[in-house]
């Protein structure tokens, strides 16, 4: 990996560390609420089933406290398991897979890059980040890192993501499709170098608001994007 890329990574990781600190702090702020819900919920359940005060204090309250402590432990362990070293390793793997020419091109556009951060605290251990420049983009989410080359792109379009769930209503088994998010799909031209790696890579986002943030960033930082958006299906 070239020295220019390494210097960019040094700066990027310093900035990312600040985002990660804020992300973890925001996650832990919600823990007392979940702990309170556990305790209050178990106590309320005891009274709803008609239990006496003594029984609620002897059984339901300790169970609620136990659940609350378990939730605190899970969040605490999650915060202990994350590290900026793991983030850097993910970035290095993605950038290291580029050709020397692409690495140099990526590093040279650094002053023109913009960033958008996404805090998906319910699903991710790390803040997600989209970095957009005139010629290259990078998307990091939960230790997955992708690099995109604009010169090889043919179009961009959004795709709603769904998952199938099943449940029983009476004697009937019901299956339903639920929306889980939205992906910004990059279509590469056939025969290009990046198409050979993955012809239709995507940037997975939690909701339409995040998609709009990504669109705004791309339009602001990538002049060539307008031609791609003209073919957008949205």
Tell me the strand percentage band: 25-35%
| Uncertain stretches of 5 or more adjacent residues | none
User: In which order are the strands of the major sheet placed?
Assistant: 1-2-3-4
Number of strands: 7
Provide structural commentary:
This protein has 234 residues and is of the alpha+beta class. The chain is built from eight helices and seven strands. The chain has helices spanning 3-29, 31-48, 53-81, 84-96, 100-108, 193-197, 208-221, 225-229, and strands at 114-118, 128-132, 136-141, 144-149, 153-169, 172-188, 202-205. The strands form two sheets. A four-stranded antiparallel sheet has the order 1-2-3-4, sandwiched between helices. A three-stranded antiparallel sheet has the order 5-6-7. A hairpin with a 2-residue loop joins β5 and β6. α1 (3-29) packs antiparallel against α4 (84-96) and α2 (31-48) runs antiparallel to α3. The longest helix has 29 residues, at 53-81. It is elongated, with a radius of gyration of 23 Å. The mean pLDDT is 87.
Secondary structure topology:
Layout: H1 3-29, H2 31-48, H3 53-81, H4 84-96, H5 100-108, E1 114-118, E2 128-132, E3 136-141, E4 144-149, E5 153-169, E6 172-188, H6 193-197, E7 202-205, H7 208-221, H8 225-229
Antiparallel strand pairs: 1-2, 2-3, 3-4, 5-6, 6-7
Helix pairs in contact: 1-4, 2-3
Concise summary:
With 234 residues, this protein is of the alpha+beta class. 51% of the residues lie in helices and 26% in strands.
Provide keyphrases for this structure.
alpha+beta; 234 residues; 3-stranded antiparallel beta sheet
